[in-house]
Amino acid sequence: MQTLDFDQTIEQISQTDPRFAADAYYFLRDALDHTQAQLRKPSSGRKQPQHVSGKELLEGIRDLAIEQFGPMALTVLNDWGVTRCEDFGEIVFNMVDSKLLSKTADDTREDFKSIYDFEEAFRKPFLPRMRLPFSPEKPRSNQTQKDRA
């Protein structure tokens, strides 16, 4: 069997499973690299991660999407057909089935189930902060207007 390169394999996956755009697979590969780099930081205590869990990958995906796409992250992901954490699990396992990624015996699609809500993860960081409710009372101060005059 001839070994296919990454691009050809992604093209084949996209034809077999058209739910997700090819860009979602490329982004996932970048997010995996990003996550592994984060896990290798001295503060993490890891020098070389051997394995990235579904939860760790989803955290890296969120970080990278916000970094790369800012307030458009949710729109971009939705445009690729990715609307929930489980979709990234499907992408990962499509890549595993195509031998682009490997997994341990303990890895399952369930590892990606409902880790975070997309709306909260990708839109909330860009929403204006909540203000305190308006109070019709005048602010209290040590001086009254009469004293200031």
Question: What does it look like?
Answer:
By secondary structure, the chain is an all-alpha fold. The chain has one domain (17-126). The chain has 7 helices and no strands. It has helices at residues 6-16, 22-40, 54-69, 73-79, 85-97, 118-122, 145-148. The longest helix is centred in the first third of the chain and has 19 residues, at 22-40. 22% of the residues are buried.
Explain the layout of strands and helices.
Elements: H1 6-16, H2 22-40, H3 54-69, H4 73-79, H5 85-97, H6 118-122, H7 145-148
Helix pairs in contact: 2-3, 3-4
Short description:
By secondary structure, this protein is mainly α. It is 50% helix and 0% strand. Helix 2 (22-40) packs across helix 3 and helix 3 crosses helix 4 (73-79).
The count of helical stretches stands at: 7
Query: Based on the structure, what is the oligomeric state of the protein chains?
Result: single chain
The end-to-end span amounts to 91 Å
What about the largest sheet? none
Runs in which pLDDT lies below 50 for 5 or more consecutive residues are: none
In helices, the fraction of residues equals: 40-55%
Kindly give the count of domains. Answer: 1
Report the average pLDDT across residues: 88
Instruction: Give the overall form.
Output: elongated
What structural class do helix, strand and pairing data support? Answer: mainly alpha
**Beta strand count:** 0
Order of helices and strands: HHHHHHH
Estimated radius of gyration: 23 Å
Beta fraction: under 5%
